Structures are given as C-alpha cells and as structure tokens.
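call fold(seq) -> tokens
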Amino acid sequence: MELFASPMACSLASHITALEAGLPVKVRFVDNKKTDDGGDYYSISAPGYVPALRLDDGQVLNEGPSVLQYLADRKPEAGLAPAWGSLERYQLIDTLNYLSTEVHKRVFYNVFAPTVPEAAKTAAKAQLEPTLGAIARRLGDRETLVGTKFTVADAYLVTILNWFAFVGADLAKFPTLKAYHQRHLARPAVAQAMAVEMAERKRRAA
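ret:
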C-alpha cells in the first residue's frame, strides 16, 4: 500500500496509524500536486488532497476517516478501531466525523487555505478557543477519545492539536487537552511519524 501525504497535514494521522499497526505502507509525499517521482497527483486523487491510500490492487481511498478505518481494520489485534457492530465503533465514526467536519473543515480549512477571504479567516480564528472547549468537553477526564485504548480518533486529534499549537492557540487554558497532547506526542509511532514529516518540511525549506 502507498500513503500519499503532505508533511504535518491531516495525513499525519494515517501515517501514525500505519506505524501503530506495523503495516507495510510506503509513505509518499506530495508537493504542489506532484508526487515524489514527479507524477501528476490528480491522476491518483481526483480532488487533489491528502490523504490518499492506494491499495495493492490499485484502488484508492481518499477521505481521512475511511483511510484511518481501513488501516485499522487491516490489523484488528492492534486495537486501533473497535469491532464492527459494537457501540464503540459507532462512537469512533461519530468522533471521526466531528473532527473532520466541525474542526478540520469548518475551522482549519478557513484558517489555512490561501484562497479564503480574510474575513472568513478572522471568523475561523475566533472559533479556535471555543472549539478547543468543545473538544475538551468531548474528551472529559479520559485519556483517549473512544474507549480506553489509543485509536485512530486519537491519531487524528493529536494531528489537529498540533495545528492549534501552530497557530498560537493556548492549550494551557484546557489542562486536560494539554496533558492529552503531551502524553500522546510521546508515543513511539507518533514521535516517529512526526520526525519523518518534520524532516520532509525542513528538506523543502532548505
């Protein structure tokens, strides 16, 4: 399998998941809609965004929640997604949908996208702290978002909390989230994925 990613973007969650599961996934970084071998990324991902997971038979998954769950289900013994049919599985889907729509799309797309009007960027930035509050309430006093084990939802939230920190949001106002973030940053798979992706960012900046 090949995971097409952009360093420190939402595809980081899929990179973390692949490492957590010990799956043989080759990470290929995309830059300016070009693949690492100079190919046209649109020929792999019609919408042109990451992540895209190309399976061994050539089929492609192109939405974060589906990529995360597919990877988790390739190694069920890793416990990265609850079993299908369990209530916790539907709680996982609920959480992934929340993170991908209400947080990622509604807030951070408007903060980061260069084509978004300045007024929309300002409005999105005003939602950063209220959104952190909503996430903190969803987490409560638990150490993981769904159940009692690290799942793909946590891989996604760690990625998003990185973005909050990047734009200067004060996680210290939400002690449970700050502790959650620091705890999961120390996971070997998280640290490894982030080291690889930060190295790619530095390579591009050189």
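The longest helix spans residues 87-112.
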